[in-house]
Design a protein that fits this description.
154 residues; 2 helices; alpha+beta; 6 strands
Length: 154
């Protein structure tokens, strides 16, 4: 039965699941980016696309990695270009966690969002983008091929 006076409880982020996901992201990123020196590039080929992982910043306790599609064999028109990964990730070495800082047009993720909202972000948007990174990194670790330095373009 629908109760017209029912008030939906406020969304509570699952911190344990988010931390588990970020720890997994850290472990897989270390496999893909073994040297965390600033300015280093690593190239991976998956199916019909080539991805570049770049170390943007390195400090004593953190590193920032950019993941970007640099070439694809699939014809993608400009309107669908936003579907390709372009992610900025911060790795926390002391906590051994990695979380998404930015993805395409979103520069910052709040722990939760009211729904509906102006940008139609899901209440668990932060978890979802980190889970997406986790799935992408897993796929890269299993099926990706490392391209020698200098062979970043297909």
């Amino acid at each position: 039965m629908n109760n017209p006076f029912y008030i939906k409880p406020k969304y509570q982020p699952d911190i344990v699941a988010l931390h588990r996901c970020c720890s997994l992201n850290y472990t897989m990123l270390l496999k893909l980016v073994p040297e965390l020196d600033t300015g280093r590039y690593f190239f991976y080929h998956l199916d019909s696309a080539c991805f570049q992982l770049e170390v943007l910043e390195k400090t004593r306790y953190t590193s920032v990695i950019a993941i970007e599609t640099i070439a694809t064999n699939v014809c993608v028109d400009e309107s669908a270009n936003h579907l390709t990964p372009q992610i900025k990730v911060r790795m926390y070495h002391d906590a051994e966690m990695a979380e998404v800082l930015a993805s395409r047009q979103i520069r910052y993720f709040k722990s939760s969002y009211d729904y509906p909202n102006r940008l139609m972000q899901q209440p668990d948007e932060k978890y979802q983008i980190n889970k997406y990174l986790s799935e992408w990194l897993k796929y890269c670790c299993i099926d990706g091929r490392v391209l020698p330095h200098g062979q970043g373009i297909l």
